[in-house]
Amino acid sequence: MASIPNPAAEKASIEAFRRDVIEASKTALVLVDFWAEWCGPCKTLGPALERLVAARAPKVALVKIDVDKNQALAAQFRIQSIPTVYAFLDGRPVDGFQGALPETQLAQFIDKLLAGVPASDDEAALEEQIGQLIAAAEEATAAGAHEDAIAMLGAVSSEMPDRHDLVARYALALLAGGKPQPAAAALETVPADSKDELVVRARAALTLAAEAPEDDELAHLVAQVTNHPDDHAARFELAGALAARGERDAAAEHLLAIIKADRGWNEGAARTKLLTMFEAAGLADPWSIKTRAALRAIWFA
Predict the structure, then answer these.
(1) What is the DSSP secondary structure assignment for residue 75, as one 8-state letter?
(2) DSSP sequence for 213-271
(3) Is 231 one of the annotated active-site residues of the chain?
(4) Within a 13 Å sphere around the CA of 59, how many CA atoms are in the beta-carbon half?
(5) Any idea what the Cα angle at residue 17 is, between residues 15 and 21, rounded to 5°?
(6) pLDDT of residue 2
(7) Are strands 60-66 and 92-98 parallel, antiparallel or unpaired?
């Protein structure tokens, strides 16, 4: 039996939609989940949406609409099947999908749309403060004041542990200050599947730092390569030691020499090491760009 329309209830639901979706989407991304109690896929999608939205609040909000109790709204949006999700920004629908997507695809869907969410005045002010702190920490690192940089970035990353970019900056500051173990501990708080550019850099830098040698060991490697220039194993070990000390040009020179002599040596270990160095420096870093050009010149000669 069809339910009897209730004009008062329909008016209330439409007014709530205007307030909670249309108006709210002017300052945040609002996801509208059309669902029903009898819908099996809805019971899979709903909890996943709730988890993802909670992790991104207040930039994202979720409004759930039971199509059985809100038939006028369901008709207005021409809901043919459920679950159906619409995304609203700036008072209008901008994207949507039907069916229960996997959580990874849901996250991608949300994060793509978040790029269009305007920052509130408070958020903009906070980002400006963070930017100033990062700039100050970078100046401290450049001046060799590593403890100052560590203190600044450690404080802000502890207050905002979900900002993986700040945790990565803190780890990089620790590495610059010669503290690989605390850097590793900091990075362990970041999910293993994080693709944040700074996290990738920090993890690559940590890998390189693990090869830092003692001074006498470094001297021995230098002597070994000088006396036996065809000893690729010693040259590779020396390159790793130099990279761990931050001597990128010297390390790259040895790695490129190995590649030029035998690009397949040790299953391409020299090229792999260079790629790790590029990740640690950042692909847009001038040193990375210059050295990648040198690698291409040898590789395609």
Answers:
(1) H
(2) PPHHHHHHHHHHHHH-TT-HHHHHHHHHHHHHTT-HHHHHHHHHHHHHH-TTGGGTHHH
(3) no
(4) 17
(5) 135
(6) 40
(7) unpaired
Of residues 39, 73, 167, 239, which has the active-site annotation? 39
Selected catalytic residue, list 29, 30, 32, 42: 42
Work out the widest C-alpha separation in the chain, in whole angstroms: 94
How many CA atoms, within 13 angstroms, populate the side-chain half-sphere of residue 103? Answer: 10
Name the DSSP letter for residue 20: I
Q: Which sign does the torsion angle of CA 64, 69, 70, 71 carry?
A: positive
In sequence order, what are the beta bridge partners of 92? 89
Mean pLDDT (10-residue bins), the chain, 301 residues: 53 88 91 95 94 87 93 90 94 93 91 77 78 93 93 92 93 95 96 90 95 87 96 96 93 97 95 96 94 95 83
pTM above 0.85, yes or no: no
Does 39 participate in catalysis according to the annotation? yes
CA distance 231 to 235: 6
